[in-house]
Amino acid sequence: MNKAFRCKRSITQTFKSFKGHCKSLSKTRRFIPTATSPDDEPLQIPATNSLSKTIKRKSVQVQSQLLELGQENLEERMQSSVAMPANPPYRLSTLIAELVPQGRSALLFELVRSSPSMTCDQLAALAKQYVALGADALVVRIDSEDTPEGLKDLWTVSRAVKVPVLARDYLIHPLQVVEIKESGAAGALGVIGQVNGRGTAVLSSFAAALGLDAPVEVINLLEVEGLAKAGVVFYGINISVGISIAIPGFSADLAHGILGHLPFGAISLVGVRSLEEARKAKLSGADSLLIKSEMIAQHQDSLHAMSMQLQYLVTGDD
């Protein structure tokens, strides 16, 4: 009884922590990330409205869902989800734990509909192709800007392949994590330190309670230090935030600077958009690489060659 009570109390506290969070996000006007170079010198990053607009849009969508669901139904759904955590047959963290001692980084291929007319079944067929090419895991983009049926895409792909499948979205509320878990995914990308602020560790812990791998995206060592104290062990770099930063070489320098200072035993996932970025991330010690859809699109006519080069990069010492 005490354990059940503590579980319910914990979920209620999680809900309250995020109750006003979406409202504050909807008022966000600008998003100006700050970071340090590998030598801890401040990096001047140009202001961009790209991410803030995305989060504002996402906030409106989530608030609409919350109003329709109601607080009582929301808490019941969250409690039910924690009471029956996911037990995916293929987990990214388990895979990484097997590969790292071999000196190999895991390769995650990002999957997204090439057009609105593309179907879930066609996406599943593409997922199988990526696995055949050497993908160790897949990341399905489920944001409404990428697909009209994000959760259905996730559900279909998760059942089509025998590798870890993660969702990629912009996560600002536990309800989104519940939906991802219910869609059969093994994890979620989209917990961003610069977006979720003080709620980052709470959202990360909630995802873990649901049985999901959920890397927290960071952009500087200060964030890493704070999250490490909160018990976060899985970190993402240059996954979503990096998209809005257009500084030549920034992503590689950022990854190098952070990877060398992650807490002992931490797991890392670095997003890359070129073979050179993949090489640098591997040399800097990345446990896993997210091969972004932009990179895959650039090599559309030579996917096999790209995959072979990536396989060499993640297994060689260079």
Automatic annotation (TrEMBL):
<dbReference type="InterPro" id="IPR013798">
    <property type="entry name" value="Indole-3-glycerol_P_synth_dom"/>
</dbReference>
<dbReference type="InterPro" id="IPR011060">
    <property type="entry name" value="RibuloseP-bd_barrel"/>
</dbReference>
<keyword id="KW-0822">Tryptophan biosynthesis</keyword>
<dbReference type="Pfam" id="PF00218">
    <property type="entry name" value="IGPS"/>
</dbReference>
<keyword id="KW-0210">Decarboxylase</keyword>
<dbReference type="InterPro" id="IPR013785">
    <property type="entry name" value="Aldolase_TIM"/>
</dbReference>
<keyword id="KW-0057">Aromatic amino acid biosynthesis</keyword>
<feature type="domain" description="Indole-3-glycerol phosphate synthase">
    <location>
        <begin position="53"/>
        <end position="300"/>
    </location>
</feature>
<protein>
    <recommendedName>
        <fullName>indole-3-glycerol-phosphate synthase</fullName>
        <ecNumber>4.1.1.48</ecNumber>
    </recommendedName>
</protein>
<keyword id="KW-0456">Lyase</keyword>
<dbReference type="GO" id="GO:0004640">
    <property type="term" value="F:phosphoribosylanthranilate isomerase activity"/>
</dbReference>
<dbReference type="GO" id="GO:0000162">
    <property type="term" value="P:L-tryptophan biosynthetic process"/>
</dbReference>
<dbReference type="InterPro" id="IPR045186">
    <property type="entry name" value="Indole-3-glycerol_P_synth"/>
</dbReference>
<comment type="pathway">
    <text>Amino-acid biosynthesis; L-tryptophan biosynthesis; L-tryptophan from chorismate: step 4/5.</text>
</comment>
<dbReference type="GO" id="GO:0004425">
    <property type="term" value="F:indole-3-glycerol-phosphate synthase activity"/>
</dbReference>
<keyword id="KW-0028">Amino-acid biosynthesis</keyword>
